[in-house]
Amino acid sequence: MGSNPYLKDKLETIEVKPRKISELLHSMAKTAYQGRKLGEVYETLLKMFEDQKVTIFMGLAGSMAVAGMWRIIRWLVDEGFIDVLVSTGANISEDIIEAMGFSYYMGSPYVDDYDLLKHKIDRFYDVYVSELDYRVMEGMIADFIKTLPSGIYSTAEFLYLFGKFLDEKNIDAIVTAAYRSGVPVFSPALVDSAYGIASIMALRDGKRLVIDMVKDFNQLVKIGEHSEETAVIYIGGGVPKDTINLITVAQTIIAEKRGIHDFYKPHKLAVQITTDLPQWGGLSGATLEEAVSWGKTSPTGMKVMVHVDATIALPLIAHAIAEEVTTRRPKKRLVNLILPELGT
Hey, which residues are catalytic here? Predict the structure, then answer.
């Protein structure tokens, strides 16, 4: 009797024993449900980090900074595991509060929010922060804006200069690490954050800057064109995810205008950690397989989505990487591609 093609890879039951986190994730990859997916995400990341050809883009959404996750992102940047960061404005501003020496506090979702308002306390689900501390952070960004020559900036140019500004003040936030490591940081919805409030504060004091989102996206596409191959890590979804996906679509359209038909340069490897679901039709929950139809992800490359809170997945994955990955990836310093446009 021939072997059954469906009964090929045996599931392996988890044994409770002393082991490293990396060993546990490898074991989970042979179990089931989202535990398997978390293990597969980790193993796909290892493949990314081994592949020197790929440029690794991270899309960072959600409220990760206030949840105690921002130092993990900074560590990934410092260690060379991220070549390009595309983030919401919130995640690269709210980390600055702690980097400045202020704190977030464990709170409760079951609270009188009007009482919090009277005490000038802002709430992120079960996290509290002083509104006054938040305003200090916004004020510092406004002060930085006032130091810049008036002109037209991409967010990557703006955030590179801000990283330099913070580095000189010994404020070690995510964009500070990116400045040191030559990692360009893009934020396609920058004003939807403390940066928007800071920009208005600076504008009302007579300082006007223009953030050019077309320039921003053009620089991202140039990085995609410059890269032999690309890979993506999505924390959450939203604008960062779609912006990174559209890098591949833009290259197809550019090639078409040049008379090169059916040109596709999809992301070779892709992982996503999300709690969003595909059946609502939104991009945040759209599967990485769906992205194949757009030419965004490779039909043959590894693509793994795990439906889990990133505050659970990120600490496990980061500690496993620290245990197992002993060879540093050379830093690509892709920020050098945009500095000529900045005049630096």
Answer: 296
